């Protein structure tokens, strides 16, 4: 039931909002390409879902093709996942939402699909899409990433340093790279 009910909620409520905004669906991941950037919305099912409850979270992110090529030496994958992005946010930490904690939507059967689906679609439309719509350039992506101390993994720090260089702040980006060395 968990997978089926989440797919049903996604097709009835989330997919129409994201399709209208230009996203293409790949399972529970949506991508939209904009001038070398990929906007990502990922509906992530909880690993602890069972027959009685289906919980999910919404994550968003932006991946810069040029950063990916420089850091990883290859093109972005066909389907860009949230974990391939920098910056990336769970819904509760998204700028403009800033609840400061993870938000999970819960379904307790098909009767919840309409209520929970409408709420999740509204959250995407009112909060996620405006953040992604504002990211149209490398500078926009850097501004979204600045000031957020989530970037703790080495790969994220490397992406951030390269992004900083590409945004025209070479001295700052090189200083970050030197510090990592």
Give an account of the 3D structure.
By secondary structure, the chain is of the alpha+beta class. It has helices at 2-20, 65-72, 113-133, 138-145, 154-166, 170-180; strands at 24-26, 29-34, 37-45, 54-64, 88-90, 105-107. Helix 1 crosses helix 3, helix 2 crosses helix 5 (154-166) and helix 4 crosses helix 5. The model has no long low-confidence stretch (mean pLDDT 90).
Chart the SSEs and their pairings.
Blueprint lengths: L1 H19 L3 E3 L2 E6 L2 E9 L8 E11 H8 L15 E3 L14 E3 L5 H21 L4 H8 L8 H13 L3 H11 L1
Antiparallel strand pairs: 1-2, 2-3, 3-4, 4-5, 4-6
Helix pairs in contact: 1-3, 2-5, 4-5, 5-6
Secondary structure class reads alpha+beta
Total count of strands: 6
Total helix count?
6
Secondary-structure element series:
HEEEEHEEHHHH
Strand content: 15-25%
Molecular shape: elongated
Overall helicity: 40-55%
The averaged pLDDT comes out at 90
Radius of gyration: 17 Å
Distance between the termini: 48 Å
| Unreliable sequence segments | none
Largest sheet entry? 6 strands, antiparallel
Oligomer: single chain
Q: Which structural traits does this protein have?
A:
single chain, 181 residues, alpha+beta, six-stranded antiparallel beta sheet, 6 helices, 19% strand, elongated
In short:
The chain is an alpha+beta fold and about 180 residues long. It contains 6 helices and 6 strands.
């Amino acid at each position: 039931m968990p997978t089926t009910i989440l797919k049903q909620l996604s097709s009835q409520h989330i997919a129409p909002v994201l399709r209208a905004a230009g996203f293409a669906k790949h399972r529970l991941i949506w991508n939209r390409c904009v001038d070398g950037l990929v906007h990502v919305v990922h509906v992530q099912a909880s690993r602890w879902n069972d027959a009685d409850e289906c919980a999910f979270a919404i994550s968003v992110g932006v991946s810069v093709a040029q950063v990916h090529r420089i850091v990883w030496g290859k093109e972005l994958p066909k389907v860009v996942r949230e974990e391939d992005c920098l910056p990336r946010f769970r819904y509760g930490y998204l700028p403009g939402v800033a609840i400061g904690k993870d938000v999970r939507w819960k379904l307790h059967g098909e009767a919840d699909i309409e209520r929970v689906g409408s709420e999740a679609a509204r959250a995407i439309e009112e909060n996620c899409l405006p953040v992604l719509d504002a990211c149209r350039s490398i500078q926009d992506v850097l501004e979204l990433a600045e000031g957020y101390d989530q970037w703790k993994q080495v790969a994220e720090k490397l992406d951030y340093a390269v992004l900083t260089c590409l945004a025209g702040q070479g001295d700052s980006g090189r200083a970050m790279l030197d510090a990592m060395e």
